[in-house]
Amino acid sequence: MTDAPGIVVTGASGRMGQMLIETINASDRATLVGAIERSDHPWVGKDLGEMMGGASSDVVVTDDALEAFAKAQAIVDFTSPAASVEFAGLAAQARCVHVIGTTGFAEDELQKINAAARHATIIRAGNMSLGVNLLVQLTKKVAAALDDDYDIEVIEAHHNQKVDAPSGTALMLGEAAAEGRGVSLGEVADRARDGITGERKRGQIGFHAIRGGDIVGEHDVLFAALGERIVLRHVASDRAVFARGALKAALWGQGRKPGEYDMLDVLGLTEN
Ligand SMILES: NC(=O)C1=CN([C@@H]2O[C@H](COP(=O)(O)OP(=O)(O)OC[C@H]3O[C@@H](n4cnc5c(N)ncnc54)[C@H](O)[C@@H]3O)[C@@H](O)[C@H]2O)C=CC1
Ligand SMILES: O=C(O)C1=N[C@H](C(=O)O)C[C@H](O)C1
User: What is known about what this protein does (predicted)?
Assistant: First the structure.
């Protein structure tokens, strides 16, 4: 028997799923106890290690989430919004910490996750890297220091397989900028410019999404005024930064009371 919490990875064959499995397997602070894929996925029923191109392992990929969650202390979940909402209910039943990295949630889906957090410890963040979470705090501070002579634009770039836009990170940065300015993002966001748009409205926060090749994830927050520009930038060059953050969150969540937390809580970056 070891004290290392048992972790189940959902979306095991995905870009993040495989990175998470490698990160957990390399750690002596957690043990991989399960791997989930969708029912129609060719990995279901197969040995996880072999599917990842290595030696056989103790883990067989399954589509039975509840059975797998029952053996775990934490679920690390980078899948799709619909899947993560379902896993939130099952993780709450199994009393597991649920780390959600999935992005692209609709408002009603976020409400369902929020409801699950009444009974479960959920840590959700659109970006699990230390660097981006620091950038969130910097963005809030810079936005609070400047008035709306400074136009704020959030520009993000990702690989050509990404299905949601703006990225979860871009929305976190936009929220931070809006909070710094004391406004509601919903009221000032401009998420699509095309055609004769008219002049930029003062106080807007604009979003731009670049998609191409194998870009891991890049985010700029631009503050542009007459005669000067400030650019706050984060570049992720390796998905391992997200996986390390997610593992840290799963460990941090052990023994924590039910509620919805984020990476600022995990990293101790919350402030007044
Ligand atoms: N918060 C963060 O730090 C990060 C978040 N992400 C987000 O994580 C999510 C996944 O990203 P990728 O790994 O690049 O995508 P991906 O498409 O490579 O992987 C998603 C995996 O989830 C699986 N899946 C979908 N529905 C499922 C279900 N019902 N049951 C079990 N498995 C299911 C798919 O089969 C696939 O293997 C995206 O929303 C992305 O934006 C990605 C990187 C970092
Ligand atoms: O889909 C991705 O790849 C990423 N998604 C997250 C997001 O939507 O911000 C985090 C990271 O940028 C990679």
Answer: Catalyzes the conversion of 4-hydroxy-tetrahydrodipicolinate (HTPA) to tetrahydrodipicolinate.
Is 23 marked within a binding site? no
Catalytic (active-site) positions: 158, 162
Q: Could you tell me how far CA 181 lies from the centroid of its own chain? A: 24
pLDDT score recorded for residue 271: 77
pLDDT for the residue 2 = 62
What H or E segment, with its residue span, contains residue 155? strand 151-158
Rounded to two decimals, the pTM is 0.98
What stretch of H or E contains 33? strand 31-36
Asked whether 101 lines ligand 2 (CB < 6 A), one says no
Query: Measured from the CB, is residue 253 less than 6 Å from ligand 1?
Result: no
Residue 79 annotated as lining a ligand binding site: no
Dump pLDDT digits (tens) for 124-169: 999 999 999 999 999 999 999 999 999 999 999 999 999 999 999 9
Q: What is the ipTM of this complex?
A: 0.99
Contacts of 163 (CB under 8 A, 6+ apart): 104
Give distance in angstroms: CA of 107 to centre of ligand 2. Answer: 19
What b/e string do you get for 183-215 counting C-beta neighbours within 10 Å, with b at 16 or more?
eebeebbeeeeeeeeeeeeeebbbbbbeeeeeb
